[in-house]
Structures
1.
Amino acid sequence: MRDALRAIFDESDAGVHAGLAYQIGGRPECVLPQDAADLTARDAWLGQVAKIRFHPDYVVVAQARAQALFERAASESGDSTRVCVAHGELLTPLLVGHGNASPTGVGLTLHHTWGVPVIPGSALKGLLAHYVAATYGSADAEGAESDDLRAPYRPPARRNGRVVEAPGSAQRVLFGAPDVDGATPSTACAGRLRFHDALPVRVDADSAFLMHDVLTPHHANYYAGASAWPNEYEDPVPVPFLCVRPRLTFHFAVEGPAAWAEQALAWLCDALAEWGVGGKTTRGYGRFAFDLDADRRKTEQAREQRTQERLSEQAPGARWQWLVHRASEEQLAEWARVVFVARSQRSCRVVSSLARAPLDPDVEDAALREALIGAGYVAAWRQGRGRDGARLNRGADNLRALAAAVDPQPVAPEPFWRAKLNAVDPTDFDALKKLADEARQPGSGWPLPGLQELLAALRATVGKRPKPGKQAVVEQFGRFVKERREAARAPEQG
């Protein structure tokens, strides 16, 4: 079987599984070289494995996977689960899984199905846990002047292999928590985030993804435990191995509650850029560069497209009920101004998600009007205020004009007595007394509701300890209103 596989590896470098080629494709003389010829054969074998290119089917799969994650990233925000994504360009060689078994003694983690480079989600989670603990939870953390600031990010404390102190609150959410030794009840919990494996994207079938590298320890005996001190006369022992070549683009994804997933992804990108991932990071391996702004713009475009598709499929009434429910009242007031007052745009054009949809403007305007009325905004605006007491950057008259434009109902003329009451200062007792004298005159036409409001205004001006003269005026007018009220009830009793 091994000989048959080696024959396949010898024939082509396209579509070959790099993991199999690296693990079992080497001939015995390449794995355990005995002389210079064997060393030359080993270098040739590793060079051949490094020429293996992406399988054409993987190119399609990588694009589909990235698109699927972006569509999930475009799902609804809030407290729901969200997938946050980022693309990172590998700046330096990458060596993940160097402790794995390997014919050369230096392992490499490759995808078990496609044989392409992969950074396991567990490696990314471990990197982020270390980065958060060192950057924010350590006593040396920048800006961490007090224990209160560091506490949420502290990892679990261990002593003699046992957990003696639970991690901080942020650590519990991000990575979960183990049981504290002797604690009752259990303190263990799972983290709320999921770290997806990072795989190459934006690849083509003509590009290779591995490179031939060499590790050259100069004091192999000393590192192996020899008692003799290292010296400058020992021969270096080159150890060739394979690693991932730079300039590949990897796709990173973190899934969980929207706010936590977004923050975790930002920290992860910082860790990958500053620390790197995998082996030999102290030598600069495993460093990435990110353009998070570009990824956010792409995510927003995907979200906009998904929203447009969903809205276009709904009936006009349901569509505008959903939009009105999500928009702020200030935005709704602006839509009402543009569509119903200024008439500069139709309703299906004020929302960018609907701008390109083939919709009937008259039907959409009517649906927006019904949604605003049904949600109670028009009734509140008609009273010159925001719904639920919200403060808007518009005056009361402006809101009343919006309500009249959205729902142009005929408004009854204001009664004369209301205009007279509104024309005087409600704290001016003399002006109110003058109105009371006028209302008592025969033929004044003041109805009972007007008289009652005028009496209430007079009582409000005199306060709890009125002067005798004012109190007499209020009592006299009160008796007049009582007589009018009893006279109005007389026909009903008869």
2.
Amino acid sequence: MRAQALLEHYGVDFEYHDIDADDSDKARAIELSGRPNIPVLAFSDGSVLTEPSNPLLNAKLTELGLI
């Protein structure tokens, strides 16, 4: 929820998938990250962050010009 709150704070568009409600979403998250941890954030440049800290997520959003 921390990552979602940060994205919402900055007004960054994102697509939320509830892995508890959909096994295919859960499988995709594990496929992307290699781990069962959430959140998994996939970016337009092909990179993936799993459970990023706020500073790491801020840096990524800045790098992509989203904030």
3.
Amino acid sequence: MGVDREGDLSSRLDEVISKYANDEQDLRVAADTLRQNFSQRLQPVLRRALRNYEHVAVLIDNLDKTWEKGVDYESLSHFLLSLLVTAGRIRSDFEKSTKDKPSVDVTLTIFLRTDIYDVMTKYAREPDKINPQMIQWHDEELLIRVLEERYAANRKHRSSDAVRGLWSEIFCPEVHGLPTRDYFLWRALPRPRDIVFLGNAALTTAIDRRHSEVLAQDFAFAEKAYSRFAVEALLVESEAQGFDLEAILFEFAGLDATISAADLASVLSSTTDPAAIERWLVRTSFLGLETRDGSFVHVEGESEARKKLKAANRLSTRMERELRYRVHPAFRPYLDIGDDDLLLEDGDHVPENNVAQVDS
């Protein structure tokens, strides 16, 4: 079709669109042309090339690159919805076989951030039929293994001794009164990139200070860099929401991590829709909910947030007290929010829970 095969996908797509389309009517012509070229020219070639493979998985990622403040979220949402539909059709097309067209087991997996998915479904005619699969890290052992495997991969001998060396030789035994392994799971959001970011920041700090191991004071410095990273990622996720999240987050500065419903109402009192912002802060893990006495759970996604909010309301009614919320440890250092769920140095305060629980 006369495009640069060495160019990236977006550049090649722009070339094709500009070749066939000058207005909205031409866009339909361009879409039909692309569809015909794929069906008649590309698909037969792909079938012959892939037929000997037991399974072919196509992963589509980085779709958040254009999801930024000021873009047309409705148009982007319709594009993503079309992509989901097309992924299903391609799979069913390749499953069909004839004498000249061998069947190929092909799956297309599309990765979307939770906040993008939530916005996209607002424009779907039947959002209940999308049936997404959430990538969840409920198992803390699997999550912390990401860091351990990274360390072991850099050692000459990958063994259980190498993993133990991470906790006995590289990191100090305790941070903020927690075993260092538990500290990682408590401070960081339950995502591999967050665990790795915090570990790298602590290690870099210790190297810069010429320490033989990563000390507690190195973590104290590194967690501020990590917290800034976590807050900036949250700000990116808020860009489609239409409110100034940075100004809202600064209202939490100086508070303790555990806050009552009245305190939260005061923090959000200057916003135009406090209830909507509260729900957004819960479904993005910034705020956790007390669902059992002294037990706080952080969630990701609209459906999980609604479910846990019902549990929190039931607890509030049963205990005859206000709802209580807790800011996730990841966001606290940047906002100077107190870690009131940890033991104080003099030991005179015992928190309800030492380690944050996260459901996603």
